[in-house]
Amino acid sequence: MKVLSLATLVTAASAFVPQKQASFGTALSAKKFAPKVQYVPCISAEELPDPGFATSGVAGGLAICIAVTPTGKIFALGDKCPPVNQPLSFGRVTEDTIEDPVLGTKFSLKTGDVVGKFCPSGIGLLLGGLFEPSGVPTYAVKKNKNSIDVQVDVNYKANFEANYWSGVLDAQGKADGKYY
């Protein structure tokens, strides 16, 4: 009986002894990249919408809304409307704003800030009270012969994805996050 009691005591005490564990990559140890801002193609020049309309594109892995004012000025904004992230590119474009087609929020084409009331129409009346008003990012844009280029941080997507945990149970099956 004494041996059994001693074995139980040793086993219980061993639970409190620090153990060396295998090291796996986590969001805390993921390599980050320095910001690298540059112009990258977003849409082709042929895809540029008519004045008063907008379209969507991708630049540096980011969803971008390309809006053209009624007088032909081109603006680039993030293509996700707060608070529920529907595409801004379906919105109505005026000379100074673009309007969220679902919740009715107007965003400044120059700054991305909310202009007027946040979520003023439809279901936005309910949702708007649940969230703090927030704008959308804006980006410098230029028109080239063959494309519409947007100035973005080309390392933004890599830095965002570096926050995903990668290790033994990686969704892709490999510890380094690569596909087979």
TrEMBL record:
A Pfam family per the record: Rieske_2
Matches recorded under SUPFAM superfamilies: ISP domain
Keywords, sorted A to Z: 2Fe-2S, Iron, Iron-sulfur, Metal-binding, Nitrate assimilation, Oxidoreductase, Signal
One MF annotation (Gene Ontology) recorded for this entry: 2 iron, 2 sulfur cluster binding
Signal peptide extent: 1-15
UniProt GO BP: nitrate assimilation
Domain Rieske: 39-150
Keyword Oxidoreductase: yes
Protein name: Rieske domain-containing protein
Source species: Leptocylindrus aporus
Lineage: Eukaryota, Sar, Stramenopiles, Ochrophyta, Bacillariophyta
